[in-house]
Amino acid sequence: MFLLCGLGNKDFKYAATRHNVGYLAIERFSERYSIPLDRKICNCIIGIKDHLIIAKPYTYMNISGGSIVALIKKFSIKNEEIIIIHDDLDMEFGRIKIRWNGGDGGHKGVRSIIESLGTKDFFRLKIGIGRDPTMTPEEYVLSDFRKDEMDTLNEVLDTVSEALNMFIYEGKEKAMSIYNKK
User: Fold this and answer.
1) Which of 19, 51, 86, 107 is flagged as catalytic?
2) Active-site annotation holds for 19
């Protein structure tokens, strides 16, 4: 059983923000592979198909760990079958990277998962959102994507869907070797 979990904030006012790119990625994967997000379990909105669960914690980013861990326990998901999709301020806009293990990199949603799970041992798919030096990190992650970024964002979300599909069906190593390139 695989769990693909996109991080974001539940309120509508955050829907198009950079911090919600994990939610956007799960929604794109849901559409592309016809896995409706039609159930609410463990305070997460999920879709299930065969041996795959896709999820969006229905919480705020900084406290998402408890809901995700409840879902992991409910479905007995192994750590090597978890991939958390989230934004990364320290990567250029549009770049993606799949990684096993590591710290939270200052990302409070990832920190919440590490603290709730009690380990750093899980996969992450990081989506670069870049930085704006004229804004604080908190302001920037909660800002909407600009209109001139939307075409790139759509391409990135398609690429993320392909990378996740390869991760599940063709192997983690293959997905990492192909999609971790600039």
Assistant:
1) 19
2) yes
